[in-house]
Write a structure and sequence with these properties.
Length: 499
């Protein structure tokens, strides 16, 4: 009898803890207006819902999670893409090597090509009543057609509004009625250990709007290798291929992240998933909708983290801030007086933890803004004000990038300090041109051109800058020969192929 009473006491204690935990939750969302949007999207807001209704039983505890899922699921869509590519058909003659191929640097094009349609699937989340949808860039990149399937099983065509490969985000738009937008939450307010829910279409459309539950495992994850600007939320909510672009939702039913990738040795779920924070996603989305592209602030320095040995060498009491290496000539930092060897300890009075944090904060600050840097210089504190410029070498608009890929089979970008670091290029390259992507089914790839190659000349004409490159390729028509001189790891190589 005493044993049974002890069990009852434990159950009551659990219910009381549950009541405290869930006392202030909001599980339903509503739309803030349904007017048609142009360049000023009006987002949904969380409504009071069950905010002040305590959970007093296990059934109510269960019902709380059900209501979170029911509130968010109608905002999730499955995204279908199709992309037509050319596949080269190998002829019998291609099976034999010829010494002339290597001598001229031009492999024979004996084989014919055939058209093949590649199909893809991913997830997205509706963020406005008139059809703006957030997803990942890699879900829709290069797609010829995009179709979404809504929670009520409607299939609707969608178009790309804009993409931002640097954060792996994209905005698409579908013209449809009775869409259910999700409320966007504050990802900065998330704490490690909070419950979250991931929703998407893992492994195929037959598993559309799958709901999985977990916790926030970590925040601010970077150096994952998924995007240029990384500040990921890590979660153990089950995420699998096909979940990309779907929402990560907090216990108030608000969007706090866009599920992007998993860390896995097998390709399946192993308890580590990553999501782009909603605050970053919202800034990118606003820029893509209002301007068609994302502009980022630029400081004009290369930086590195400060470890214990560097701290001792600089006379710091402990590792802090980030160390300035190269100061770009005529850049914003140089104009403000920043020098090599300075340690940036604060920006606008807020402490700087590491290089990733500083880079993201500078990039998210609009060009033309003034920022105050607290520096450590040769044993003393210094303050400087810097007016940020626009990050040079911005990504091409989606249409321009697709046009270039269609014509050349590869894309290029003006060389920037960020690209120099990404491709581990050495020396002062000035206004160089770097290959940022190569279509694997194209002639350029088969000829040997690879991402990270520096283009020095086109058809025997030097291309010292991006405009010179565009002028050089403008006169080359489809089917004609393109003759490139590139530099790769310090060696110069010629490639020639037909467009």
């Amino acid at each position: 009898m005493r044993y049974k009473a002890w069990n009852i006491a434990l159950v009551l204690l659990g219910v009381m803890v549950g009541a405290v935990t869930f006392a202030n939750l909001d599980f339903s969302i509503g739309s803030k207006g349904n007017s048609l949007l142009t360049t000023s999207p009006r987002y949904a807001e969380a409504s009071p819902g069950l905010q002040h209704q305590p959970v007093t039983t296990l059934r109510e505890f269960n019902e709380a999670f059900v209501q979170i899922a029911e509130s968010a699921t109608p905002s999730v869509v499955t995204i279908f893409t199709e992309k037509t590519v050319s596949r080269r058909m190998i002829s019998p003659f291609d099976l034999f090597d010829s010494p002339f191929d290597d001598f001229f640097g031009m492999p024979r094009q004996n084989g014919k090509s055939r058209q093949e349609v590649l199909k893809g699937i991913g997830s997205g989340v509706i963020v406005t009543a008139d059809g703006y949808i957030l997803t990942n860039n890699h879900v829709v990149e290069g797609a010829d057609t995009i179709t979404i399937r809504t929670w009520d099983d409607r299939k609707v065509e969608a178009k790309v509004v804009g993409t931002d490969p640097k954060t792996d985000l994209a905005v698409i738009k579908a013209e449809a009625k009775n869409l259910r937008p999700i409320a966007i939450g504050d990802s900065d307010a998330l704490r490690v250990g909070e419950w979250v829910i991931a929703i998407g279409s893992p492994l195929g459309e037959n598993l559309a709007r799958t709901v999985t539950q977990g916790i926030v495992s970590a925040k601010g994850r970077a150096n994952v290798g998924l995007a240029d600007y990384e500040d990921f939320i890590q979660t153990d909510a089950a995420i699998n291929p096909g979940n990309s672009g779907g929402p990560l939702v907090n216990i108030q039913g608000e969007l706090v992240g866009i599920n992007t990738a998993i860390a896995s040795r097998t390709g399946g779920f192993e308890g580590i998933g990553f999501a782009v924070p909603s605050n970053m996603a919202r800034k990118v989305m606003d820029a893509l909708i209002s301007k068609g592209k994302v502009t980022r602030g630029w400081l004009g320095v290369t930086i590195q983290d400060v470890d214990e040995n560097i701290a001792r060498g600089l006379g710091l009491d402990a590792p802090e801030g980030v160390l300035v290496g190269t100061v770009v000539e005529k850049g914003p930092a140089e104009k403000a007086g920043v020098k090599t060897g300075d340690v940036i300890r604060k920006i606008n009075g807020r402490k700087v933890e590491n290089t990733i944090e500083l880079r993201n904060r500078i990039a998210s600050t609009p060009p033309g803004s003034d920022v105050q840097l607290d520096l450590w210089r040769e044993g003393r504190s210094v303050q400087v004000n810097v007016r940020l410029s626009e990050l040079p070498g911005q990504e091409l608009a989606a249409e321009e990038r697709e046009d270039m890929t269609d014509k050349l089979g590869f894309t290029v970008s003006p060389l920037t300090p960020e690209l120099t670091e990404r491709y581990r290029l050495s020396g002062d390259r000035g206004d160089g041109i770097v290959v940022t992507g190569v279509l694997q089914s194209g002639n350029a790839y088969r000829a040997g051109l690879r991402e990270g190659d520096l283009i020095l000349s086109v058809n025997r004409k030097e291309v010292p800058g991006y405009k010179a490159f565009l002028d050089a390729i403008a006169g080359v028509d489809q089917g004609e020969l393109l003759f490139l001189l590139v530099e790769r790891k310090g060696s110069k190589i010629y490639f020639a192929f037909n467009l």
